[in-house]
Specification:
It is built from nine helices and 16 strands. The protein is an alpha/beta fold.
Amino acid sequence: MDPNAEALPYMRRYAGKTLVVKYGGSAMGETGEWFARDVALLKQVGIHPIVVHGGGPQIGQMLERLGIESRFVDGLRVTDRATMEVVEMVLAGTINKALVAAINAEGGCAIGLTGKDGGLIAAKKLVRGGRGRGEVDLGFVGEPEHVAGGVLDTLMRSDIIPVIAPIGVGASGETYNINADTVAGAVAVAVKATRLLLLTDVAGVLDAEHEPISEISAGEARRLIAARVISGGMIPKVETCLAAVDGGVEAAVILDGRVPHAILLELFTDTSGAGTLIRAG
């Protein structure tokens, strides 16, 4: 059977729908070519993708080159003024423009954005409590307060693919470094996305036997976190998915971005995909 014919029912299911795809810094590299091609294809078949990208490894490399020490608290980069300048340069400059160019080279019409453009992401300072140490000052690390979904809706109606660097702006104009997963989840809720796809460098959520889970309810995901089956760096990713589902997103998926065409496999085949799907319930 023609594989394109097999994919048609799935394409119709998502026609006119909005998908938010988080493309992590750790998932970049060799995946760049097929990722850009697949995002352009989604738009060509009538689906509206929005890309939110990270860039942690690339930021770390640039800071090292400049002799600026990196320090982390609970996986978040402590961001002073000098570090924030580098973060913005790498995210809004190098990575964002390279990704935009790659999508456009594959026939898409991508536009690069940060939270500063059109007031897209209003942010506030993120306050993190240290274990027994009171509050820890993370510097210019923020969290979204509001995402201007109407700005993105306008762009998508114009056949544009928004590519968003996770930088927000505070009430006084200050620039904030925001976790890309968090931004992707907030964007997905703001635009009422059908799917939130988080591309990572792992096989998805693992069960107690360390086997990948193909689909899980929100309630079961919370139980696995409480039982410490879901642990470490997977917890914030699952919590992002839970917040998105709670906010009205139909489902969220943690995808193994190392698998070629992971997005298409997830959306357009009846296999279990390349990761873990989380639904309400």
